[in-house]
Amino acid sequence: MLRPFAAILLLLAAAAAPLAPADDLPDARDAALRRNIERQKLDEETYHKRLETLPGTKRIEDLLRITGEGGRLVIKSPLFDPDESAKLRNRQVRAQVEGFEGYCVLMVQPVGKGAYYFTFANTRYPDLRAVHRLSVSTQPGYVQIGRNLSSATRNQSVNLVQSQGRSAYGQADGVQLNVYAGDDNGHMTESVSVSEPDFPTLRRKHPRLVSEYLRPLLRELKLESLFAIDPMTAWQVFADDWTGNEPVAARIRALLPALESDRYTDREAARQAVARLGPDVPLVIYKMDRAGLTPEQNAQLDAVMSTQPFLSRPDAQRMLSDADFLLDCLYSPDPAIRTIAARHLHRVTGRKVHVNPSDDYDARAAKVEPLRADLLRTPPATNPAR
Q1: 96 torsion bin: left (phi>0), alpha (psi -120 to 50), beta (else)
Q2: Model pTM score
Q3: How does the average pLDDT of the chain come out, rounded?
Q4: Over the range 165-177, which residues count as b (16 or more CB within 10 Å of their CB) and which as e?
Q5: DSSP 59
Q6: pLDDT of residue 330
Q7: Contact 102/124 with Cβ under 8 angstroms?
Q8: 346 to 277, 338, 340: CA distances (angstroms)
Q9: Domain residue ranges in the chain
Q10: CA 97, CA 58: separation in Å to the nearest integer?
Q11: Is 80 strand, coil or helix?
Q12: DSSP 3-state helix, strand, coil percentages of the chain (rounded to 5)?
């Protein structure tokens, strides 16, 4: 209970405060927000004008690319060429980038032994009602891809962080997806934090979270090609549909005796001969019936296969019924992979997708993404932390 003196003070304060109609409060707050965002935009524009400009209009691939190599995300850039990076003189520069509104700023700084510190940021102010920022950065052992949105009613951040060998900075090796969102009253509405050893494992174990949060982020950055399924992985899953390569299979069978020779040099020569037979070698070995082979022959064939990331057979079988994986296969440039994926997708979901061999990336997306959005309406298999 309030003491009498405190109660009197509260009454006096209430009486002195100017009263605003309830309907005017949202308008006043909206106007104040717009003024604040307008000031931020003006500051950004003033700073932007001070920067040197990269000549011409660029595409995002002229500035950066993200690839998956051995389970790791790797950021590459044509600007990592020593001559190109020297032109930037370790300074921030602005760029006009096709498909990006607002302000784009980047910096490339060599840090020795062919490594670079790189940042790219795009900031825009849609209708002066929100601040929207996309960012990509990398340095040795670290990759970050993020989006931050701030408006009158919602704040959200989505960040993918990959760390390697950075325990000295308190960062564990692996990949982490962090999502946070809150409403205008400061109440948390979303909270997600999942960690895995690498990016493929993150995709495999948390497909709904990846599709809901990470895929839209990469789409905004025009970097969704990171989700393309490589042919080697696709054909492992679709092994029963692969027509095979009989000439390569016959040559491997002919080399089997040498793979278990008593002489190390003969075994090594045979193994290298198998590896040189072409890109289909791992898949041929993957499909081989090895029941009658000796332990040494199996070991030599496994050594050849170890040069490629291979799924376990249970994982490959599970992915045959994974709608997210099958949808990603529909982006493959190989019409055969798209056709097989569409057939399995129909079996799994009951939805038909017509595969046109001449479809470009945008045409495939127009078919795939509405279907993905519809399938995402089902409850996610992974419960995010809340």
Answers
A1: beta
A2: 0.67
A3: 84
A4: eeeeeebeebbbb
A5: P
A6: 87
A7: yes
A8: 36, 12, 10
A9: 38-226, 231-238+320-375, 239-305
A10: 5
A11: helix
A12: 45, 25, 30
